[in-house]
Amino acid sequence: MSDNIQKKGPQNKWASEYRRILKLAKLNDWSIVSHSLYDHRLTFYRGDDDVTMHVWYGRVNKIVTQMNHTKHGETDLMRRELSGEEEEKIFRNPRYHSHKGEYLKTRSY
Length: 109
What we know:
Blueprint: H1 3-7, H2 15-27, E1 31-36, E2 41-46, E3 51-56, E4 62-69, E5 73-80, H3 84-92, E6 101-104
Antiparallel strand pairs: 1-2, 2-3, 3-4, 4-5, 5-6
């Protein structure tokens, strides 16, 4: 995980949420790709699964995973309003079904 991205994290009320997400990513072998302070979004990649994950923190609690599904090809799955436990499950297994998700046909992020 890039020290530069960690140092440039939010310096406001979302800072603890930002650090919690970075810790989850590190514990589950995700590499940080980018961070947008504008919309409070972190993007991670994990090569073992060939999955990209976009995590919005703060007021918008949302995770979008992009992966290659065996039956459906490239898919994007968006999940909203997740508990901390559900987020941990998704970081461990990005194919986890929270039953709070929807498939996206076009990328809107």
